[in-house]
Amino acid sequence: MISYWIFSGPALALALFSLRGERRRAGYASGRLSESLAGPPPATVIVPVKGYDHGLRENLAALASLDYPDYELILAARSAADIPAGVLPRRARVVLAHGADEWTSEKIQNLTAGLAAARQPSEIYAFADSDVLVSPRWLRALAAPLAEPGVGASTGYRWFAPERPGLCDLVRSVWDGVTFGLMGPGDNRFAWGGSMAIRKETFREARVAEYWRGAVSDDYRLSAAAHDAGLRIAFAPGALSPCFEHVGPRRLVAWTRRQCMITRANDRNLWRLGLLAHAIYCAGMAASLAAAAAGSRMALWVFAGQILPGMLKSFHRAGRARASMPEQAAWFRRYGWAHVLLVPFVTWFWLLALASAAFGSSIEWRGRRYSLDTPAPLR
User: Would you say the C-alpha torsion 285, 26, 124, 228 has a positive or negative sign?
Assistant: First the structure.
């Protein structure tokens, strides 16, 4: 019995502890979603493009029709061949980087070229990925926190919500939703590169361009620059955006492993904490299931105590996402159940992804292979 509690006790305590802060996150999200920004400053939105993404034409059209009084849209690519035909919105300006830096990721080189071409009056730089569909309020949501003292950057996030999703699509949605659930009031650990913004003045003073030099990850390095300058990263729930891309089993495993490898390379403490927490969760669940199979009724109650807090937390997390993306309400009505029922399985999938990230030192990203030990792309 003592050995059983050694495994199941910490998992039970951790599950209950994980609910801490949920009310604050909900209140923060509600307040942010109801705020309005009068007279937002001029902005430049930069979108790196590398081949075709699901819904690319619609995603770029949405970025070209934001509810924002004064902004320009720049599409940045390595070469013209990276921009598919028939996807360019009228108001977009194309900038070609022709990047040849062997030590810096292609995405960062494209972003840098876009920044160099940005118009002078812009006071805010915003960055979006080409595989998400932003709402008209996206840029206003990102700009609002930047007006507050001590805020160095603002961030939204993505929510995987493909139409008629398969099991792998739903697993990825639940898996990635965990990261969304970490975001809330105060300083956030990182900004997500597919939906983030920074003031031009802060970009220069925090020396973001220097942090990007020789790097693979644009968002982790921008986050490091902001934090090293003593500034906070503010979460903007109104900048949460859906991604409709589908994924199969092999790609799901590779994608989750790559996300964890990038985290391990850029924030090793976060990766270690995640690995430890999920090892505790899974060891506790396994111990409870084994004890229950041996006839212990108490173990069933303990097992319920281990999994129900996570399921409840995921239910509330999906509720915040739905409030942030009212246009996707129909998706949540049809598939919101996955963010409750799949949570125990996804906990094991998190452990697999985090543990597999301990091995290997390179990733493939948009057709190129990069070393995470040294920033140079591998041949």
Answer: negative
The last residue of a domain, from among 246, 270, 291: 246
Question: Of 246, 261, 286, which marks where a domain is finished?
Answer: 246
- Are 71 and 139 within 8 A, CB to CB? yes
57 and 148 in a common domain? yes
Return the ∠ at Cα 268 (arms to 265 and 270), rounded to 5°.
Answer: 125
Q: Which residues of 55-76 are buried (b: 16+ CB within 10 A; e: fewer)?
A: bbeebbbbbbebebeebbbbbb
What band does 162 get if pLDDT is binned at 50, 70 and 90? very high
Q: Please state, in angstroms and rounded to a whole number, the distance separating the CA atoms of residues 312 and 22.
A: 10
Q: What does the radius of gyration of the chain's CA atoms come to, in whole angstroms?
A: 21
Q: Which domain holds residue 256?
A: 2-20+252-378
Least confident of 269-273, 294-298, 368-372: 368-372
- 100/203 same-domain check: yes
Does the predicted TM-score (pTM) go above 0.70?
Answer: yes
Q: Are 204 and 285 found together in one domain?
A: no
Q: What are the structure tokens assigned to 371, written together?
A: 């070393």
Quote the number of domains for the chain: 2
Rounded to whole angstroms, the Cα distance separating 176 from 19 reads: 18
| CA dist., res. 171 & res. 345, Å (int) | 9
Query: Residue 376: what pLDDT?
Result: 45
Please report where in the chains the tokens 């320009």 appear, as a residue. Answer: 72
